[in-house]
Amino acid sequence: MPIYKATVEGQNFSFLVDDEPQLAGFHKTLYLEADNDNLAADQAIDRVRNELITKKLLTGDPSEQPSLDVDDIEEVSAADYSPETVEEYVWYLVDSIEDEIEEEEVV
Predict the structure, then answer these.
(1) How far apart are CA 35 and CA 26, in angstroms?
(2) Model-level pTM?
(3) Is 39 helix (H, G, I), strand (E, B) or coil?
(4) Are 60 and 46 contacting, i.e. CB atoms less than 8 angstroms apart?
(5) Which of 18, 54, 61, 64 has the lowest CB atom count within 10 Å?
(6) Strand 3-17 relative to strand 20-33: parallel, antiparallel, unpaired?
(7) Average pLDDT, the chain
C-alpha cells in the first residue's frame, strides 16, 4: 500500500494569551498508508481531529469555528518514511503571521 505525506493545517483556534483572546493556527505533517491520496487526506483530517478532541482543543461540534484542511499531500517512498518519525504540531499566532506578511509587503 502506498505511503503518503500529508500536511494538515488548522485555523481559527482561540486561546488566551496574557489574558487576551488570540487566534492561532497550526501545521502538522503525518505519514499514512492508504490506497490513494483522497483516502490519505481523509485519514489525516480524522486523525488530527481525534487528537484535538482528546486534548480538548476541539469539541467535535461542527458549528465550531476552527477548521482543518489538508494543505499538501504527496506519495513518498518507503525509504522516506520511518515509523519513529515524530509528528508534532507547529502552532503560530495568527497576528504574528499577519505581521510577517505585512512586513514582506512593505519591503
Answers:
(1) 27
(2) 0.77
(3) helix
(4) no
(5) 18
(6) antiparallel
(7) 83
Partnered with residue 89 across adjacent β-strands are 28
Q: Counting every residue, how long is the chain?
A: 107
Q: Where is pLDDT greater, at 87 or 106?
A: 87
- Exposed e or buried b per residue across 62-88, where buried means at least 16 C-beta atoms within 10 angstroms of its C-beta: eeeebebebeebeeeeeeeeeeeeeee
pLDDT for res 104: 47
Q: H or E segment at 67?
A: strand 67-76
Burial class of residue 59, CB neighbours in 10 A (0-12, 13-18, 19+): exposed
DSSP state at residue 36:
S
71 pairs with which residues across the strands? none
